[in-house]
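Q: Fold this one first, please.
A: Sequence and structure below.
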Amino acid sequence: MKSFRLGVVAFATTLLAGSPMLADDLALVIGNSDYAHGKKLPEAANEAANRVAMTLDAAGYEVFTGTDLTSQDMFDILSEFNDRLPEADRIVIYYSGNPVSALRSTWLTPVDMQAVSPVLADFTGPSLDLLLGMAANSRGNSVVMIAAGEDGFEEPGFGLKNGMGPPAVPKGVLYLQGDAANFGKVMTDTILRPALSATEAAKRLEGRVEVVGDVPDVVFGPKNQAQLDAAIEAASAAAAPASDDSAATGREQRDAEAEEAMNLSRAERLRIQEALTVLDFEPKGIDGAFGPNTRAAISRFQDDQELPATGYLREGQTERLYNLADKRARELDAAARKAEAEARRADNSFWQERAAGGDEQGLRAYLRRYPDGVHAEDAMRRLDQIEENRLGSVSQQERQAWQAARRTDTPAAYREYLRSYPDSQFANAANTRMETLLGGADVANQRDQLAAREEALRLSRDSLQSVEQRLDNLGFPPGRIDGTVDGETRIALRRFQRSRGLEVTGFLDDPTLRQLVAASG
């Protein structure tokens, strides 16, 4: 079924500051699910879009809503919505569907989407930038929410991929993005609650959805709880009856009170997060703050131990957690020592077979494989001598350019040198040194993927500073300990990873964090 209608619908994310809502607050809700050539979204995504639309009605926004819209339908509703923007004080835009992206651009697809190229994507569905630009036109604050399906199309089109690209969020716009399967539940638990401040909502959302942009210092939801309850009940009427979870809610409340009575210090909270990390329950950072990620990690630990998974710790559970983590840390230490010995043997074997004789090609092959290896300094000294012997056979200008690149000794300096002297006798040396600085040939070739994996951890600056401090304490100095992962930190990470028998990349991932915590004792 396709629908395209106007209505007074409102949404609790927006900005009730205590005065009556005005008619010139606008919202747009699009819920696309029934794709003709792609994967359908789960029923939870449809219910969430409907719930948002009905809650908008409770808060008094004038709303444009559309369900399972074709390409023509989407541009029609956007055109009408755009005509009303000059009158808008506040704007809310909600889209649920299967996005596609290319480089830094994202398109929100209609249900009749077929494989296209980036050139035609703008004519198939609206871009995320278009919606963000519309939101930026309000006289007050605006909110854009994207509930994104994953792997929506088997073949989205040449040059396109499934999923969202990075959002370029304008000033004055709050941007929220999450997975379509659970985004609606997260919204219901947070910003759809009546009279919740923007600051508190953002705090509750941390770690659960992506939050980017300006958080307005106002109240989000409608004040009238009865009106909101009626709207949500109407939106859920077609769904299966909800189970009575009052017992579970009461247990969670009791556990929360029991944990509060324990009066955990920051040091104890840090230790709990460390133990969860070692046990692979991943609180996504060790900073002493029990946000949604830590609560979810505690729930996973409790579920694993066949305890009520409330996300709050009771007396006795902490000791069980510590004991299990200590045992796992000893196991990780033993495995790391064995893996380190194996890695050292492989390093020495490669050196003896390929580089120990001083052959230039073998020395460069060694550094590409082991940029921070046992014999890396020896290999660099030998190559420096080979390069020194060549200086007399090149022009003065080229010699000076090479010496300047060596003094700077950064990937950028070597790239600049190669642009000026692509056929230089030092071209191989420049490429080797670039790869060495970047962590080796394999790491240099997959740097984007490794960076994305590290970014997905969403570690706070405090957590990154803790990583640097741990590296320094373990004898792998990362340079300045400031929560910024720079070249020196990458080198320290590679050396630590090699010492623990991990994949040597210089980038953070879950196994590296576990080993760091285990090694720190």
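Q: Good. Now the second chain.
A: Here it is, same layout.
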Amino acid sequence: MQRQKARFFPGSLKPYRPFARGRFPRLLPRLWVVFGAVCAVLVTRAPGQAIPDCINYQGFLSNEDGTPLATGNYTMTFRIYDGETGGAIIWGPLILDGQPGDGHGPTVYVVDGQFNVALGPEDVGSRLLGSTFTAGSQRWLEIQVEGSAAMARQQILTTPYAFAVGPQENLTVTGTLTAGKVSLPDGTPGSPLFAFADDGDTGLYRAGENVLGFTVGGVERARIDADGTLVTSARVCVPDGTAAAPTVTFSSDTNTGLYRVGTDSMGFATNGQKRLGIDGAGTVAVASTLALADGSAAAPSLAFTADANTGLCRVGADSLGLVTGGQQRLGIDAVGKVSVASSLVLADGSAASPIVTFASDPNTGIYRIGADQLSFAAGGRETLRVTDWGPYVEVDQANYTAEFRNNRTAYNAADPSYNANGVRIRLGSASAGNTFISFCRGDGVQIGSITGWGGLGIAITGRQSGDYAEWLPRRDPAAVLEDGDVVGVLAGGIGRDTAEAERVMVVSSCPIIIGTCPADAAERALGNVVAFVGQTPVRVRGPVTEGDYIAASGLDDGTAVAIPAGDLSPADLRLVVGRAWESSDDPGIKPIRTVVGLDVTAGLIASLGARVTALEADNAELRAAMKALQAQMRTVMEDLRR
């Protein structure tokens, strides 16, 4: 159908349209919702009651000949546009076809052409009708009956914009709003007088005579009383502010007040300058001098409201006093000397945080580690402990436990005690059993000691140590020698080959004294410690009987063999390492406790001497017999010649 603009007659709210040609009649609509009715709803509705989200719409449908449309149910579709023609659909469609779902409703019952419908609250897109009307907007209604072509749009005027003050939007006043005195009930925290459609227990009410209350969630959170005092039941959050413009300030002095300096810190400013600050740890910083009266022990200058004779006072020139109960307990004089009138009780502290420490090095100092135990820490680690039975050092580090250094270089022959010395250990008595130094494993088992010996000397003892040794370099630095290996010494170097050796020795397993040992670890790794005197395990191949001589096997593999004393030949003498002090039937290679470096060949030499003496005697008898035989032979020869 051709769209025609509605015409309005003076004194009537009913828009009139001439009938149009077509299957269905022209529409004669009326908008019954007027502004006065909307206002009445806003003023007289019960607290919490919402404004309806629908518009009541009435109209008249006629046929082409002007007769009313027959009574019956019809499907009608409504849309709202932002223009009279073209434009965009702002809301709709709303389809009254008897189908379920958003944007659908019952079919329209028409009686002799007249009908009445409620538009809203949602269209098929779930958009609320109330959201359609915003301040300054233009809206046009389009109607379609039973699937016929849409009728000409009608402009929606004035009254539907009451939605702008409903739950969907705020009331916007662009000019001056003038009203007389309005008398209202007080309201309560649970039902404030001024509230919100979707939040009925949040708003403003009268809490008492000349008192306004602000409620949130039905609970009063703040109030303003008659003299303008703001009272709150929770925090008041304000902006940070600055020293030049504090957040909490005064109307007549806006650059003096309180502000937030940073995280967990606030500042007090006067004349736009920070004068005092308090940080997150409670430290108070004063930008200038805090001037106090001297006070006294009985009435200190800095005290407490509940304890006026406890605090800080000025004792005298450049001296401070700390007092409790009207008595000075601690004083600090001009040179920083601290005097304590009684015990100074401290917390225990820890290695990481000693109780007595230094401002520039807080993990170095003194702390209490346990009952009757005092510890010293450096770098957050315990370095020395003093207990009720004496001091000791317990550390966990790769280097030395302690270093004693005497930097004195001058020499004084008249007073040797003045000269540079190392460590001096002095006991009440140096008798046997008094230990100067003990050596222990990690489990506390003692493995050696230096003890007094009869009051005249000391004894160095080792639990497993058995020989006195020296370090000798390997002839082949890359060679690997094991403890108990038999080695040949040649030109001061050692190796497993023994054929041309000047002397045959054994690599020590646990020496008690080591001589000529390099201090440098890299150099020390180029040699081995060789037993010179004492007892040490030797790698022996084959069975061994206690008392056998242990000699190089000649295999150049670091092993030795056992030779009974009666079987030893002069050629074996050069290869002898020592003498076995234990037996073994094991045919393989095993360590045999062997005495080395002592006169192990004395018996061998004595035995060989006896054998030589016997041989010489035998030789003398043989020579005598030979002479007698020769004499007899000469006699026989002479007889034959005759």
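Q: Anything worth noting on the second one?
A: DSSP finds three helices and 45 strands in the chain.
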